[in-house]
Amino acid sequence: MKRTGFTILPLHGGHAPRWLIYRMENLSKEIIWLIIDEYGTDEVLRKISDPYWFQALGCVLGYDWHSSGLTTVVTGVLKRVLSNDNYGIKVAGGKGKASLKTQLEIDRIGEDFNLSSPSIDRLKYASRICAKVDNTAIQAGYPLYHHAFFLTEKGDWSVIQQGMNIQDRTARRYHWLSEDLDSFIVEPHKAIVGDVKRPSVLNMTAKEAEENRNTCVDLVKGNPNNLVSSIRRISSPSTLDLWTQDQVKIASVEGFLMPRNLNWETFKRLYEFQPKNYEELLSFRGVGPSVVRALALISELVYGKQASWKDPVKYSFAFGGKDGVPRPIDKKEMDKAIEILRNALEQAKIGQKDKVQALKRLQRFVTTG
Prior knowledge:
2 domains, elongated, 5-stranded antiparallel sheet, alpha+beta
């Protein structure tokens, strides 16, 4: 299983017109069916988990490819298309309130696919932990508002979810893929794509944060009173000032401030639970961004186990990079992704005019990036 990247996009208001949705559904039905027929449902999961291919698909379908609306519109279109026919792959969740129905929809789809109860439970857990990691373990200022869970009749899955930053009106998209995923916690990305690099981001999925994660687990398994004492000690501005004087690598002191409101009952329940590892700690009900941040700070400031405060974004979606974010290009993979779309369009049973326009949109996407 492999988490395959995230994309940062400008927010886009409004709704796609009904006529556009209708055309997108007809065209996407042809594209998805041809990919399944040629490569199988696993390849559909791989393709939608590739940020570049997913963006190209949105462009081909006729949506503004460089806006956040592409994520919600395209996944919504795919959900409707895949629910109407027996493709062997369906979608749970969606935008806003629809995302809250994900667990119930996974139950229903799992039953439709005749999956066992343990398999369905594993799928529901995957949905929850994917959201928890992107909402809580990576704190870049993008709380999730969209979560779409794709699953096949074999029990394989992928996730496309998106968060919104209210301050600068941008959105960050996250892609997950079950294939070859060894850990939900430690750098599960294949690609991290975005045009905004934050100066101070708590990233508890970084490899270099391993000792910090282990210390966080030890902290919640120890005496809760000692934990409370440590939190209060480093919550003092004077204590933080003394510490920062010797830390020349700090990019933003504000990023290291202790959260003001903490639920002490959560720490008591964690102590009673005794999590075995960081994944169990993170997935525990009641553990949110504030708890994760507080534990990371104590582990670093008191015990000297460094967390990662670097934004994990590594690629710009624009060709050549943007705002200091380079974009290494795997041209072979890009060419393969585009060729699959182009072949699907050539074979699609749609009007010649629609086919020509879709091919032109694909070419425009390739040349303008």
